[in-house]
Amino acid sequence: MVKIRTPSPSRARLSSAARRAALLSRFNNAYSQARLDAQCLLRRCIDEAETVQRIIYIATVEAFHIAKMAFRHFKTRVKKSLTPSYAGTNDCEDAVLDYILCHLDLYDSQSSVNDVIRAMNINPKISLPQEVDFCILSNFIQEICCIAFAMQTLEPPLDIAFGADGEVFNDSMYRRSYDSDFTAPLVFYHVWPALMENDTVIMKGEAVTKRGAFLSNS
């Protein structure tokens, strides 16, 4: 049962800019540091840099997907508990958001990590040597899940862009990796997703482009 306290509807709005800035910094740090740390862990058992980068990208995408679902479920539970106290008023949505912001620690991030690892285990695009488990990425996955969950409290919420191998490279959405063929028009694979606010790119992602890669694979 959710404990009801005196609501402060303006609180979320007043702190929204600061929370957004903090989350953007945290997402950038995940790219610049946590991602590299995860790469180092994987490179101990996987020789191919491409495979390592694909695994981390898929882990990031799955973490956002799972965390967003967890947020929706959490918000629904809170709303059901608070609704009786706000019957006949328009303050329920503000109270729900206010409660979630004050209780982000109630998010069961470990459960989301487990869901992400299960999804990765059945993903046909990636695999690990038999003696290795995706659990070695648990810390990285947990950080991405917590970032993605908190980003859903923003108005509007932040999300990552959908990316597919073979799509036309979008210079406004991605940077090319240093080892890319800078004349290739298609994305060979993604290294890091772009961060979006509705249809606006907030932070560019990273992708590898190679001319003739798909033709040689065929």
TrEMBL record:
Check the record and name the Pfam families matching this protein.
Answer: MIEAP (PF16026)
Q: Name one GO cellular component term.
A: mitochondrial outer membrane
Q: Ranges for the Mitochondria-eating protein C-terminal domain? A: 19-209
The alphabetical list of record keywords is:
Coiled coil, Cytoplasm, Lipid-binding, Membrane, Mitochondrion, Mitochondrion outer membrane
Q: Does the keyword RNA-binding apply?
A: no
The primary site where this protein sits is cytoplasm
Which GO MF terms are attached to this record? Answer: lipid binding
* InterPro entries given in the database record: MIEAP, MIEAP_C
User: Where in the cell?
Assistant: Cytoplasm; Mitochondrion matrix; Mitochondrion outer membrane
Q: Tell me which Gene Ontology terms the entry assigns under biological process.
A: mitochondrial protein catabolic process; mitophagy by internal vacuole formation
**Xref: PANTHER family:** MITOCHONDRIA-EATING PROTEIN, MITOCHONDRIA-EATING PROTEIN-RELATED
Q: Which family does it belong to?
A: Belongs to the MIEAP family.
Q: Mind telling me what this protein is named?
A: Mitochondria-eating protein
